[in-house]
Amino acid sequence: MSLDKPRTVLVCSCERSMPRFGASVARGCKGARVEAGDQFCGAELDRVRSALSGGEAVTISCTQQAPLFGDLAEELGFAGDLVFANIRETGGWSQDAAAAGPKAAALLAMAAEPASPPALVTLSSNGVVLVYGCDATAIDAGRQLAEKLDVTVLLSRPREIAPHRVWDFPVMQGTIRQARGHLGAFELTVDDFAAPNPSSRDRLGFGISRDGAVSNADIILDLSGGVPLFPAHELRDGYVKADPGDRASVATAIARAADLVGEFDKPRFIDFSADLCAHSRSRITGCTRCLDLCPTGAIAPAGDHVAIDAEVCAGCGSCAAACPTGAAAYAVPDAESLLRRLRTLLLTYREAGGLDAIVLFHDLGHGEPLIDALARFGAGLPANVLPVAVNEITQLGVEAWTAPVAWGACAVRALSSAKPRHELTGIAANIAIANLLSRSLGYGAEVCGLIEADDPNILASTLDLITPDVAPRRPAAFLPLGKKRSLLTSTMLELHRAAPTPVDRVALPAAAPFGGLEVNVDGCTLCLSCVSACPTGALSDSEQQPALYFSESACVQCGLCAATCPEKVITLTPQVDFQAWGARRVVKQEQPYNCIRCAKPFGTRSTVERIVAKLEGKHWMFAGENARRLDLVRMCDNCRVDAAMNEGFDPYAGHGRPPPRTTEDYLRERKASRDKPV
Asked: What is the pLDDT of residue 143?
């Protein structure tokens, strides 16, 4: 892989505990100045100092001693690009180490790919803690925290508790009905709320209770032993829950709560663009993918779009992986940066002589320690398994699963815990779509998959069972550019272009991010309600004549068009039709009807003629002597108003009413009948 700027790559054998990969790295990282060594952190530290003094970007094949090298760079005033890559636990410490040279080159090249840091969200806590429990355990916890925090204890249906001589923090009775918020901004609704009786003697008593009391807190320590106050409660910053019967768990929870004071920064995991959201239009619900998947309740409807609470978001990325428009985009890293890293990894691996690449996605909390354990105490990763660290494996969308296949990977896997902290429903759906596409295009049956393992030996045995499927006939080399949706479409096209057995159309399951529309053109009136409802512009019209156009590559199968259509003539068809991904196609078009007075085109000819046929001779306003009024239907809006006003016709008048009869009328008729000769 050619580098964009001069770079020095220091490749260490870690005191000869693994092979020197210098030659393979030089073959894969063209244009880089590669230096191989055995102990850059000790005896050869001067070589690192020399590299950092040269002004070029530097990559060092060691993460264990990164703090040492970082301090040295600061001491030397190095302001260039300094990155570190682990090739020891990921490749060098393996029974396949002799063949791991191409992997080392690929990992070093991937590490040099830049990624923009995400924006930060700041949570501020002043140390106001609510200890929620039902017995003396909560009061004891409050007493321990009172030395550092502003404590209030809330007891739900308290058992017999002996009152204390001096209450140095409030103890209240109440049951939390609803809780919302996050670290530094919790709001609780409490029922059965009551203050203690000062005269409590042998047991703590409470006064008259009331429902609907509201309390605010920065931290919640839940020792109630009941149902958690929040969904996915372990992911809610500031909410600490422990089993009141487990002393060790309670002690750990108290220590955690005591540390939650001050300002805390966390990444803004999701970059949300409301204008791209396909959730709703005109109070008609369309896409709900993110709402269905969010484990923490951080996403809620907000009119035509959804709103994401960045303070509550725990960063699982399921919403971004499922979002078909790219309105919810993951930012740690962004999709383009991740695909660029994957491209560099696979192209470098191939250029360095590597074969049958298997991409292994993993997170830092579970996957990285498991890979380290396999390297230290087991056989290590196979030479063709290329580990790629991500923040959460649930952030991986269809594009992240299929792009490596287009670039030449024979298999793609994600490493998960057997007891994951995030729900895997979303990632399983994306894997199913990726496998369906890969199988249909001839890449193999189960190219993508999930490895659920907590034991390094299970990881090793599972990796050994992966047999290389059909490699692409001509691996792609496209450069990923743009936002989520454009990356997804370009990846699909390249996957099709590089396919061993390409087909034009692949049927997909419901809720897939791609698809077409079937329109009953005979029932379509070209009212264009669907065009105004479509959030992506997949449906469009023409300024020249009545027409409906459809761009299949832009359709996200949100269903808003079908739900909005007054004639109910639209049916969704989840699929990838590669032949239809070119220019927009005409769904229906007609000649406009020209105004009979000014010749201005308006409406469609079929619609106007159908209205005339339905009214002619069948409605009092357009029947008999009023038949000429049918011309109003044949006029444009301006001429219609002008004609109606000049005619003096009142459409609200209805049939003419007989004049009221008076006494004079009756007297006149009586006189006329008297004067009438017999």
From this structure: 93
